[in-house]
Amino acid sequence: MTVRNSTIFVEPDGFFTRLWKRVKRIGPWTVIGLFALGVLFWGGFNWAFELTNTESFCISCHEMQENVFKEYRHTIHYTNRSGVRATCPDCHVPKAWGPKIIRKIQASNEVLHKVLGSIDTPEKFEAKRPRLAEHEWARMKANDSQECRNCHNYQYMDFTEQGRRAVATHSVAFSEGATCIDCHKGIAHQLPPIEQEIGAPKPDAAKVN
Amino acid sequence: MALIRRSILLVAFLALAGGAFAQEAAPPQPIRGPTPIPETNPSEAFKYDRSDRPIPRNFPQHPPIIPHNIKGYQITKNVNMCMSCHAKTRAPTTGATPVGRSHYLDRDGKELANISARRYFCLQCHVPQFNADPLVANTFRGPTK
Questions:
Q1: For residue A126, what is the enclosing H or E element?
Q2: ipTM (interface pTM)
């Protein structure tokens, strides 16, 4: 009578013992090889992934190069006294891994519209600008302007170094729970039409807040 | 022999005349400097006045001038960013100088909700100030000064 296949009478092995048995079964070199492959795969994936998170990747499409990038070149996030920059992905792609993956999956819709040519002329882009801006404002409002706050940390703002207008507005706005994008719209790109009741009505105006 | 001497003189004269002509064609020294006309002189690095306090006017009807940085403030077909603080409805909360009543009147004298489209381009009259020295001395003294 054999008890080899019965677990009733045999003391169960510990985790490391079982692991070691499995390693012995498939061979230690196979295990080391698999581990190295895993490192290579993850490194390669991450490398390719981060390549799509660069300014040069973004403006490799003329839709970005000819519209939003040209406007951005006149702003303080492109060029400034100290040379510290915020490029496209710094504002438009979250830094944390989970939200970043989610945003990149959403971006497949942008690839679709690249293929469809939805904004492939400045005129088409201008027509879509109110909707595109609304989407980006809503995204930043939802995550409490996280991409602004990656650099502009309210906790470390020295109000004595800010201008009179900035101090007055910031101290009130922050205590009221406002977020950066509530006021700082159009800091890196041209604004869409906004209804200000000046002159003719703007039927296609973007909704502000 | 005389012919040779005469031709040497002639060559010398021509050389002198040519030299004089070349001197005449030397480039003039214009006030704008040696930069050719199609090009633009590089400007000096001026800084905005950022005193953030109203600058006194020099005479009645003087458009108030801008005591703050306006870099990147858009006045486009889509939006007039000045009015997001200086509109009379916004000024009490933002602390900005409210736009005068005259700017809210259309050409028939009817008061509008926001400034008249005739007044859209603020920078035609209201200008920012820079730390530049005046190019020409000015002795103007306004009646309010």
A1: helix A122-142
A2: 0.78
